[in-house]
Amino acid sequence: MHDLTRHRYIADSCRRDLGEKLVFIGGPRQVGKTTLALHLLGSERGAGHPDYLNWDVARHRQRILTGELPTGKLLVFDEIHKFARWRTLLKGFFDEHFPERTALVTGSARLDHYRKGGDSLQGRYHYYRLHPYSLMEMNSAPGRDDLEALLRFGGFPEPLARQNATHCRRWQRERHSRVFADDLTSLERVNEVSLLELLFAALPARVGSPLSLQALRQELQVSHHSIRRWLDIFDNLYLTFRVAPYGAPRVRAVKKEQKLYLWDWSVLEDVGARFENLVAAQLLKFCHHREDTEGFAMELRYLRDTDRREVDFVVLQDRRPLFAVECKAGDKAASPHLRYFRDRTEIPALYQVHLGSADYQAARNIRVAPFTTFVGELGMP
Protein backbone atom coordinates (compact mmCIF):
# COMPACT_ATOMS: atom_id res chain seq x y z
CA MET A 1 0.00 0.00 0.00
CA HIS A 2 1.17 3.51 -0.81
CA ASP A 3 1.25 6.14 1.94
CA LEU A 4 -1.07 8.98 0.88
CA THR A 5 -1.06 10.82 4.20
CA ARG A 6 0.45 13.98 2.69
CA HIS A 7 -2.10 16.78 2.77
CA ARG A 8 -3.67 17.65 -0.55
CA TYR A 9 -2.13 20.22 -2.84
CA ILE A 10 -4.90 22.82 -2.41
CA ALA A 11 -5.15 22.52 1.38
CA ASP A 12 -3.02 25.56 2.23
CA SER A 13 -4.75 27.73 -0.37
CA CYS A 14 -8.19 26.70 0.91
CA ARG A 15 -7.20 27.44 4.48
CA ARG A 16 -5.97 30.90 3.49
CA ASP A 17 -9.07 31.68 1.41
CA LEU A 18 -11.41 30.67 4.22
CA GLY A 19 -10.31 33.89 5.90
CA GLU A 20 -11.67 35.86 2.93
CA LYS A 21 -14.79 34.06 1.70
CA LEU A 22 -16.59 30.74 1.67
CA VAL A 23 -14.71 27.98 -0.15
CA PHE A 24 -16.32 25.52 -2.57
CA ILE A 25 -14.50 22.33 -3.55
CA GLY A 26 -15.72 20.39 -6.58
CA GLY A 27 -14.26 17.49 -8.50
CA PRO A 28 -14.82 13.87 -9.49
CA ARG A 29 -16.62 11.39 -7.30
CA GLN A 30 -14.24 9.66 -4.83
CA VAL A 31 -11.35 12.06 -5.45
CA GLY A 32 -11.00 12.88 -1.73
CA LYS A 33 -13.09 16.04 -1.20
CA THR A 34 -14.63 14.95 2.11
CA THR A 35 -11.28 13.74 3.43
CA LEU A 36 -9.73 17.12 2.59
CA ALA A 37 -12.62 18.97 4.25
CA LEU A 38 -12.24 16.95 7.45
CA HIS A 39 -8.49 17.59 7.36
CA LEU A 40 -9.17 21.33 7.22
CA LEU A 41 -11.51 20.93 10.19
CA GLY A 42 -8.65 19.29 12.07
CA SER A 43 -10.94 16.35 12.68
CA GLU A 44 -9.68 13.26 14.47
CA ARG A 45 -13.24 11.92 14.62
CA GLY A 46 -13.72 11.69 10.87
CA ALA A 47 -17.25 12.36 9.71
CA GLY A 48 -18.37 12.42 13.35
CA HIS A 49 -16.97 15.92 13.85
CA PRO A 50 -19.72 18.19 15.26
CA ASP A 51 -19.08 20.90 12.64
CA TYR A 52 -19.45 18.50 9.70
CA LEU A 53 -22.90 18.28 8.07
CA ASN A 54 -23.72 15.89 5.24
CA TRP A 55 -27.09 16.30 3.49
CA ASP A 56 -27.21 12.53 2.89
CA VAL A 57 -27.18 11.82 6.66
CA ALA A 58 -30.72 12.04 8.05
CA ARG A 59 -29.86 13.70 11.37
CA HIS A 60 -27.59 16.22 9.61
CA ARG A 61 -30.31 16.97 7.07
CA GLN A 62 -32.80 17.65 9.86
CA ARG A 63 -30.43 20.16 11.47
CA ILE A 64 -30.00 21.97 8.16
CA LEU A 65 -33.76 22.10 7.54
CA THR A 66 -34.49 23.44 11.03
CA GLY A 67 -31.61 25.92 10.98
CA GLU A 68 -29.92 24.29 14.01
CA LEU A 69 -26.40 24.72 12.65
CA PRO A 70 -23.26 24.03 14.70
CA THR A 71 -21.55 27.00 16.33
CA GLY A 72 -17.97 26.26 15.29
CA LYS A 73 -15.76 28.81 13.53
CA LEU A 74 -15.57 26.57 10.43
CA LEU A 75 -18.52 24.51 9.18
CA VAL A 76 -18.35 21.90 6.45
CA PHE A 77 -21.41 21.29 4.27
CA ASP A 78 -21.14 18.10 2.23
CA GLU A 79 -23.55 17.49 -0.69
CA ILE A 80 -25.58 20.53 0.42
CA HIS A 81 -26.45 21.34 -3.20
CA LYS A 82 -29.06 18.55 -3.04
CA PHE A 83 -31.08 20.93 -0.83
CA ALA A 84 -33.32 23.07 -3.05
CA ARG A 85 -32.60 26.25 -1.07
CA TRP A 86 -28.91 25.72 -0.49
CA ARG A 87 -27.85 29.03 -2.03
CA THR A 88 -30.21 30.96 0.25
CA LEU A 89 -28.90 29.03 3.26
CA LEU A 90 -25.27 29.81 2.47
CA LYS A 91 -25.96 33.43 1.55
CA GLY A 92 -27.73 33.97 4.87
CA PHE A 93 -24.96 32.22 6.79
CA PHE A 94 -22.26 34.30 5.13
CA ASP A 95 -24.06 37.63 5.49
CA GLU A 96 -24.84 37.01 9.16
CA HIS A 97 -21.68 35.34 10.45
CA PHE A 98 -18.67 36.16 8.24
CA PRO A 99 -15.82 36.82 9.09
CA GLU A 100 -16.26 35.43 12.62
CA ARG A 101 -17.44 32.16 11.09
CA THR A 102 -17.01 30.67 7.63
CA ALA A 103 -17.89 27.51 5.72
CA LEU A 104 -16.44 24.95 3.33
CA VAL A 105 -18.79 23.38 0.77
CA THR A 106 -17.98 20.15 -1.08
CA GLY A 107 -19.73 18.34 -3.89
CA SER A 108 -19.13 16.55 -7.17
CA ALA A 109 -20.56 17.21 -10.63
CA ARG A 110 -23.83 18.61 -9.34
CA LEU A 111 -22.16 21.30 -7.23
CA ASP A 112 -20.22 22.55 -10.27
CA HIS A 113 -23.41 22.48 -12.35
CA TYR A 114 -25.79 24.05 -9.85
CA ARG A 115 -23.48 26.82 -8.69
CA LYS A 116 -23.63 28.21 -12.25
CA GLY A 117 -27.40 28.41 -12.14
CA GLY A 118 -27.63 31.70 -10.25
CA ASP A 119 -25.62 34.56 -8.91
CA SER A 120 -27.01 34.92 -5.36
CA LEU A 121 -23.62 33.80 -4.00
CA GLN A 122 -21.56 35.91 -6.40
CA GLY A 123 -18.56 37.42 -4.65
CA ARG A 124 -19.01 35.30 -1.54
CA TYR A 125 -16.90 32.24 -2.36
CA HIS A 126 -13.73 30.93 -3.98
CA TYR A 127 -14.04 27.76 -6.06
CA TYR A 128 -11.47 24.97 -6.30
CA ARG A 129 -11.36 21.86 -8.47
CA LEU A 130 -9.75 18.94 -6.68
CA HIS A 131 -7.89 16.60 -9.03
CA PRO A 132 -6.67 13.04 -8.49
CA TYR A 133 -3.20 12.51 -7.07
CA SER A 134 -0.18 13.35 -9.19
CA LEU A 135 3.50 12.59 -8.79
CA MET A 136 4.44 15.60 -6.66
CA GLU A 137 1.49 14.96 -4.35
CA MET A 138 2.61 11.39 -3.83
CA ASN A 139 6.22 12.27 -3.17
CA SER A 140 8.11 15.57 -3.20
CA ALA A 141 10.99 13.67 -4.84
CA PRO A 142 9.11 11.15 -7.01
CA GLY A 143 10.89 8.12 -8.38
CA ARG A 144 10.27 5.36 -10.87
CA ASP A 145 8.13 3.34 -8.44
CA ASP A 146 5.82 6.31 -7.85
CA LEU A 147 5.36 6.81 -11.58
CA GLU A 148 4.68 3.12 -12.22
CA ALA A 149 2.06 3.05 -9.45
CA LEU A 150 0.38 6.19 -10.76
CA LEU A 151 0.44 4.90 -14.32
CA ARG A 152 -1.03 1.52 -13.40
CA PHE A 153 -3.59 2.39 -10.73
CA GLY A 154 -4.56 5.97 -11.62
CA GLY A 155 -4.67 8.95 -9.29
CA PHE A 156 -7.83 8.30 -7.27
CA PRO A 157 -6.91 7.80 -3.60
CA GLU A 158 -8.43 4.38 -2.89
CA PRO A 159 -6.96 2.26 -5.71
CA LEU A 160 -3.67 4.18 -5.62
CA ALA A 161 -3.29 3.55 -1.90
CA ARG A 162 -4.14 -0.14 -2.16
CA GLN A 163 -2.17 -0.90 -5.34
CA ASN A 164 -3.97 -4.18 -5.85
CA ALA A 165 -5.08 -5.06 -9.38
CA THR A 166 -8.22 -6.94 -8.31
CA HIS A 167 -9.29 -4.18 -5.94
CA CYS A 168 -8.64 -1.58 -8.67
CA ARG A 169 -10.86 -3.39 -11.19
CA ARG A 170 -13.69 -3.74 -8.64
CA TRP A 171 -13.36 -0.08 -7.67
CA GLN A 172 -13.55 0.97 -11.33
CA ARG A 173 -16.76 -1.00 -11.87
CA GLU A 174 -18.39 0.27 -8.68
CA ARG A 175 -17.49 3.90 -9.40
CA HIS A 176 -18.74 3.60 -12.97
CA SER A 177 -22.05 2.17 -11.74
CA ARG A 178 -22.55 4.91 -9.16
CA VAL A 179 -21.78 7.71 -11.62
CA PHE A 180 -24.27 6.38 -14.17
CA ALA A 181 -26.92 5.34 -11.64
CA ASP A 182 -26.75 8.37 -9.33
CA ASP A 183 -24.94 11.38 -10.77
CA LEU A 184 -26.12 11.03 -14.37
CA THR A 185 -29.81 10.63 -13.64
CA SER A 186 -29.86 13.42 -11.06
CA LEU A 187 -27.89 15.90 -13.17
CA GLU A 188 -29.35 15.35 -16.63
CA ARG A 189 -32.66 14.37 -18.13
CA VAL A 190 -31.69 11.35 -20.17
CA ASN A 191 -33.76 8.41 -21.32
CA GLU A 192 -30.97 6.63 -23.17
CA VAL A 193 -28.68 5.57 -20.31
CA SER A 194 -27.78 2.30 -22.06
CA LEU A 195 -26.68 4.24 -25.16
CA LEU A 196 -24.57 6.58 -23.03
CA GLU A 197 -22.88 3.55 -21.52
CA LEU A 198 -22.19 2.18 -25.00
CA LEU A 199 -20.69 5.52 -26.00
CA PHE A 200 -18.51 5.67 -22.91
CA ALA A 201 -17.28 2.11 -23.57
CA ALA A 202 -16.19 3.23 -27.06
CA LEU A 203 -14.09 6.16 -25.82
CA PRO A 204 -10.97 4.49 -24.31
CA ALA A 205 -9.90 3.29 -27.77
CA ARG A 206 -10.04 6.90 -28.98
CA VAL A 207 -7.97 8.52 -26.23
CA GLY A 208 -5.24 10.78 -27.62
CA SER A 209 -6.53 10.87 -31.20
CA PRO A 210 -8.59 13.60 -32.86
CA LEU A 211 -12.16 12.70 -31.99
CA SER A 212 -14.49 12.08 -34.93
CA LEU A 213 -18.09 12.74 -33.90
CA GLN A 214 -19.22 11.40 -37.27
CA ALA A 215 -17.59 8.01 -36.60
CA LEU A 216 -19.21 7.81 -33.16
CA ARG A 217 -22.58 8.81 -34.62
CA GLN A 218 -22.40 6.06 -37.21
CA GLU A 219 -21.24 3.47 -34.68
CA LEU A 220 -24.14 4.17 -32.30
CA GLN A 221 -26.70 5.07 -35.01
CA VAL A 222 -27.76 8.28 -33.28
CA SER A 223 -27.81 11.94 -34.25
CA HIS A 224 -24.82 14.26 -34.28
CA HIS A 225 -26.62 16.41 -31.70
CA SER A 226 -26.98 13.45 -29.33
CA ILE A 227 -23.27 12.59 -29.52
CA ARG A 228 -22.28 16.19 -28.78
CA ARG A 229 -24.71 16.42 -25.86
CA TRP A 230 -23.61 13.11 -24.35
CA LEU A 231 -19.93 14.04 -24.56
CA ASP A 232 -20.75 17.29 -22.76
CA ILE A 233 -22.48 15.22 -20.06
CA PHE A 234 -19.37 13.06 -19.62
CA ASP A 235 -17.27 16.21 -19.20
CA ASN A 236 -19.74 17.57 -16.64
CA LEU A 237 -19.61 14.29 -14.70
CA TYR A 238 -15.79 14.38 -14.53
CA LEU A 239 -15.54 11.21 -16.58
CA THR A 240 -13.78 12.82 -19.54
CA PHE A 241 -12.16 16.07 -20.58
CA ARG A 242 -11.38 17.34 -24.04
CA VAL A 243 -8.46 19.30 -25.47
CA ALA A 244 -9.06 21.71 -28.35
CA PRO A 245 -6.51 22.48 -31.09
CA TYR A 246 -4.20 25.49 -30.87
CA GLY A 247 -4.46 27.65 -33.98
CA ALA A 248 -0.96 29.09 -34.21
CA PRO A 249 -0.94 32.03 -36.71
CA ARG A 250 1.86 30.79 -39.01
CA VAL A 251 0.79 27.15 -39.06
CA ARG A 252 -1.93 25.53 -41.13
CA ALA A 253 -3.35 24.10 -37.94
CA VAL A 254 -6.46 21.98 -37.63
CA LYS A 255 -9.13 24.01 -35.87
CA LYS A 256 -12.10 21.80 -35.02
CA GLU A 257 -11.31 18.26 -33.96
CA GLN A 258 -10.77 17.87 -30.22
CA LYS A 259 -8.87 15.15 -28.41
CA LEU A 260 -10.48 13.29 -25.51
CA TYR A 261 -8.99 11.98 -22.28
CA LEU A 262 -10.27 10.20 -19.17
CA TRP A 263 -10.07 11.34 -15.55
CA ASP A 264 -9.24 7.72 -14.66
CA TRP A 265 -6.52 6.65 -17.06
CA SER A 266 -5.99 3.31 -15.31
CA VAL A 267 -8.74 1.74 -17.48
CA LEU A 268 -6.59 2.13 -20.62
CA GLU A 269 -4.77 -1.00 -21.77
CA ASP A 270 -2.15 0.54 -24.06
CA VAL A 271 0.81 1.91 -22.08
CA GLY A 272 1.48 4.72 -24.55
CA ALA A 273 -2.12 5.95 -24.43
CA ARG A 274 -2.17 5.61 -20.65
CA PHE A 275 1.02 7.68 -20.31
CA GLU A 276 -0.28 10.38 -22.66
CA ASN A 277 -3.54 10.51 -20.67
CA LEU A 278 -1.60 10.80 -17.40
CA VAL A 279 0.39 13.73 -18.83
CA ALA A 280 -2.82 15.36 -20.07
CA ALA A 281 -4.35 15.04 -16.60
CA GLN A 282 -1.23 16.50 -14.98
CA LEU A 283 -1.25 19.50 -17.32
CA LEU A 284 -4.98 20.08 -16.79
CA LYS A 285 -4.36 19.99 -13.04
CA PHE A 286 -1.58 22.56 -13.48
CA CYS A 287 -3.94 24.81 -15.48
CA HIS A 288 -6.84 24.52 -13.03
CA HIS A 289 -4.56 25.13 -10.06
CA ARG A 290 -3.23 28.35 -11.59
CA GLU A 291 -6.74 29.50 -12.42
CA ASP A 292 -8.15 28.68 -9.01
CA THR A 293 -5.27 30.09 -6.94
CA GLU A 294 -3.83 32.90 -9.08
CA GLY A 295 -6.66 33.91 -11.40
CA PHE A 296 -4.84 33.41 -14.71
CA ALA A 297 -6.84 32.35 -17.76
CA MET A 298 -5.29 28.97 -18.53
CA GLU A 299 -5.89 26.69 -21.51
CA LEU A 300 -4.71 23.22 -22.42
CA ARG A 301 -4.50 22.72 -26.20
CA TYR A 302 -2.78 20.50 -28.73
CA LEU A 303 -1.01 21.45 -31.96
CA ARG A 304 -1.57 19.65 -35.24
CA ASP A 305 -1.31 20.88 -38.81
CA THR A 306 -3.02 19.73 -41.98
CA ASP A 307 0.03 17.61 -42.86
CA ARG A 308 -0.46 15.66 -39.59
CA ARG A 309 2.58 17.05 -37.81
CA GLU A 310 1.63 17.17 -34.16
CA VAL A 311 2.76 18.07 -30.65
CA ASP A 312 0.57 16.52 -27.98
CA PHE A 313 -0.02 19.55 -25.73
CA VAL A 314 0.41 23.32 -25.55
CA VAL A 315 -0.24 25.18 -22.29
CA LEU A 316 -1.48 28.77 -22.66
CA GLN A 317 -1.66 31.51 -20.05
CA ASP A 318 -3.77 34.55 -20.89
CA ARG A 319 -3.81 33.29 -24.52
CA ARG A 320 -0.02 33.17 -24.78
CA PRO A 321 1.81 29.83 -25.02
CA LEU A 322 3.97 28.94 -22.00
CA PHE A 323 5.35 25.60 -23.20
CA ALA A 324 4.55 22.56 -25.33
CA VAL A 325 4.83 18.88 -24.38
CA GLU A 326 5.29 15.79 -26.54
CA CYS A 327 4.83 12.36 -24.91
CA LYS A 328 6.83 9.22 -25.71
CA ALA A 329 6.69 6.02 -23.70
CA GLY A 330 10.40 5.39 -24.39
CA ASP A 331 13.33 7.82 -24.24
CA LYS A 332 13.59 8.21 -28.02
CA ALA A 333 15.26 10.97 -29.99
CA ALA A 334 13.40 14.26 -30.04
CA SER A 335 10.52 14.36 -32.49
CA PRO A 336 11.26 16.44 -35.62
CA HIS A 337 7.83 18.01 -35.16
CA LEU A 338 9.18 19.88 -32.14
CA ARG A 339 11.76 21.65 -34.28
CA TYR A 340 9.20 22.34 -37.00
CA PHE A 341 6.75 24.04 -34.64
CA ARG A 342 9.50 25.79 -32.69
CA ASP A 343 10.48 27.66 -35.85
CA ARG A 344 6.92 28.60 -36.77
CA THR A 345 5.30 29.49 -33.46
CA GLU A 346 5.96 31.67 -30.44
CA ILE A 347 6.13 28.73 -28.04
CA PRO A 348 9.16 29.56 -25.86
CA ALA A 349 9.93 26.05 -24.55
CA LEU A 350 9.20 22.59 -25.91
CA TYR A 351 9.60 19.35 -23.98
CA GLN A 352 9.56 15.70 -24.89
CA VAL A 353 8.74 13.71 -21.76
CA HIS A 354 9.09 9.97 -21.40
CA LEU A 355 9.20 7.01 -19.00
CA GLY A 356 12.94 6.43 -19.37
CA SER A 357 16.05 8.10 -17.94
CA ALA A 358 17.51 10.17 -20.79
CA ASP A 359 17.80 13.88 -20.01
CA TYR A 360 19.41 16.29 -22.47
CA GLN A 361 18.99 19.49 -24.47
CA ALA A 362 18.08 18.26 -27.94
CA ALA A 363 18.21 21.68 -29.61
CA ARG A 364 17.54 25.30 -28.87
CA ASN A 365 14.46 25.50 -26.63
CA ILE A 366 13.88 21.74 -26.95
CA ARG A 367 14.42 19.49 -23.93
CA VAL A 368 14.11 15.72 -23.68
CA ALA A 369 13.52 14.71 -20.05
CA PRO A 370 11.99 12.01 -17.85
CA PHE A 371 8.47 12.87 -16.79
CA THR A 372 9.53 12.77 -13.13
CA THR A 373 12.14 15.47 -13.84
CA PHE A 374 9.72 17.57 -15.88
CA VAL A 375 7.04 17.82 -13.18
CA GLY A 376 9.62 18.66 -10.50
CA GLU A 377 11.38 21.40 -12.44
CA LEU A 378 8.17 23.11 -13.56
CA GLY A 379 6.67 23.00 -10.07
CA MET A 380 3.62 20.93 -11.02
CA PRO A 381 1.11 20.46 -8.19
If you had to describe this structure to a student in words, what would you say it looks like?
41% of the residues lie in helices and 19% in strands. With 381 residues, the protein is an alpha/beta fold. It has two domains: 11-129, 3-Layer(aba) Sandwich (Rossmann fold); 140-377, no CATH class. The strands form two sheets. An eight-stranded mixed sheet has the order 7-6-8-9-10-11-13-12, sandwiched between helices. Strands 2-3-4-1-5 form a five-stranded parallel sheet, sandwiched between helices. Helix 11 packs across helix 12 (224-236). It is globular and about 65 Å long. It starts with 10 loop residues before the first helix and ends with a helix.
Biggest sheet: strands side by side, in what order?
Answer: 7-6-8-9-10-11-13-12
Q: How many structural domains does the protein architecture include? A: 2
| Overall residue-averaged pLDDT value | 92
By DSSP (H or I, 4+ residues per run), the number of helices equals 15
Rg, Cα atoms, Å? 22 Å
Extended strand count:
13
Low-pLDDT segments:
none
